[in-house]
Amino acid sequence: MSLAMTKAEREAFLAETRVAVISVDEPGRGPLTVPVWYRYEPGGVVRFVTAGDSKKAALIRAAGRLSLCVQTETPPYKYASVEGPVRIGVPDFDRDVRATAVRYLGEQLGQLYLHTTANQQAGSVLVTVTPERWLTVDYAKMM
Questions:
Q1: Phi and psi dihedrals of 89, rounded to 5?
Q2: Could you give the CA distance from residue 139 to residue 108 in angstroms, rounded to a whole number?
């Protein structure tokens, strides 16, 4: 019995609101592994915004690819991991910044977050990941 998710299951799972953990190569050390808020629509790319002058952004630029994993926190456990090439671009405020803040915090807290972090948004970059390889498990399939 396979515990792997189908294509439709894995894409729906990744599209849910979860905190992702990304890993990107850091030469001479283990990979940099950090949480991110992201957006994904089935069949599309994964998008997240980060500070353009951050260590994370520099390593992503240098590596040209990364891995991203999302999971459930309660049984029956599930996870989906994707790996693929990245593009760095300029975020669209409404689509990439505002919509993501509201997705994770709700309308009221999302607007407060945007107001509080407004001075940090200049110089942000949009990271777009094209999923090439997937690894998934859904332990509910054992039941």
A1: -145, -165
A2: 35
Written as six digits, the tokens of 130 are 């094209």
83-93: pLDDT as tens digits: 999 999 999 99
Question: How far is C-alpha 130 from the geometric centre of its chain's CA atoms?
Answer: 11
**Gap between the Cα atoms of 89 and 123, Å rounded:** 11
From the CB of residue 17, how many other CB atoms can be counted at a distance below 10 Å? 11
CA angle 102, 76, 14 (to 5 degrees): 35
pTM: 0.95
Q: Calculate the dihedral angle through the C-alpha atoms of 70, 72, 76, 81, rounding to the nearest 10 degrees.
A: 0
